Amino acid sequence: MIDPSRTVALVGRPNVGKSRLFNRLCGKRMSIVHDMPGVTRDLISTEVRDDYVLLDTGGIGMELDMTPKKISVAAEEQVEFAIQAASIILFVVDIREGITSLDEIVAQKLRRYGKQVVLVTNKVDLEEHESAADEFIRLGLGEPLLVSAEHGRGITELEAVIDEKLGPKPEGSGADQSERIRISLLGRPNVGKSSIGNRLLKSTRLIVSDVPGTTRDSVELDLDYQHKDGELLKFRLADTAGLRMKRKVDNPVEYFSSVRTQAAMERSDVVFLVIDAVDGVTKQDQALAGEVLDAGRALVIVVNKWDLIIDRWTHDPIEGFKNLKHFLKSYEESLRKEMFFLPNPPVLFVSAATGFEIESMLNAAAAIQATLDMKLSTGKLNSVIQELFEARAPKIVGTKRFKVFYAVQTGSRPLRIRFFCNRIERLDPSYRRYLEKAIIHEFRLNGCPVRFDLVGKERRYEEGEGEHAPRHNDTLQNKARLKKMGPDAAKLDTKHPERRKRITQSKAAHNASEGKGGKGRKKR
Prior knowledge:
With 524 residues, the chain is α/β, with parallel strands linked by helices.
């Protein structure tokens, strides 16, 4: 994992060549789109040489047709964003246009904050452009570095400057960090994530407040837990900023916090989605759960503030429920209906305020971690899928049903299964969820997402895909039917047409000798 402090940001007004320079430095085109209010252009970020994170702030807050006043405000937003994001700022200017008023505004604000700044004069495409470089010294940001992002000139020198300013990559704890289970706390603002983190850490190293949005950035801390059986479990805990609905993210600082939260989630082995027990499942909770699912991370749902429910039950029991345990069961059933699209994750009821069942979170994470790299037996997998099709047949789409000829695991984290099937479009969403949840249940993968890669007949035959794929008549559904027809018929389930021919000839000869007709039948 890259140290979050090793971040480099490209800053500059529009059309100075930041995106082209970005592509030069990372060696590829990489665009991560975050469609959120307050940002007039997509944020682009990527990891460079597994050494640092490169951000292109783009024209954040800046447009060519802005008034001077709006430009000043936009420049401040962009610089503030870079200050929050980066340890090093690459201030990009256009040598052909000279110093503009907007360049001066940005330079002034960068000097005020005292950040490490590299002044990059771009578009030095011709030798005569070099003489104009001295003008930029008056920006007060040091000697300008001459580059041409279009032609690759000066890129090696720029990379050397970045490496020098970043310094050597911290060695950290090395192997110890790779052994730790990476967990993160995710949830909307004010559901008690930091309070849970403090309970887990048995400290107050995280800031706790009743004001939503207190945590502005993700914080990562090591956590060692002595399991009751004596095993020492090692975790890396990330407490993330509370994520709002996208339409409510309205300033660069909060936007950057959400980006960092997303990154922390994607680095996690297990994500704890924290829900307020009193509020129940909200639309934002569902949206966040979908984000975790899309990221392919294992998930545990944590219902916090359960002490408030216990207290209410003690003073005023709810009619229709025998006891608190009965109510808890009903609550969980209702929650799972609201989160029907999830891979049957564990649901834990905890209280950060009292410490109730807090340690169950670590036990759940350790149990899930043990299954993340599971290798499924291909034979067992195909048998399970065959049984699932027999238990519940897919609905007819067009004139035929969805069929799977063969299945094989192709990856993990998340678990990936490739289906060689007849028609991809015949797998409807409800049947896909049925297969996903049934496989998760059968192989005890609760909380772990499953991905299906579908390969239809046309694609397999045209592109030669699927080295594991058998012939057309070797479907899982046909296997059961052929088995009932006898041992010889079962042999038809092969990759070799010649064997089928020999079986057919053998049957014909047998029929002739028994007088059952056919070409060899004797005349009476």
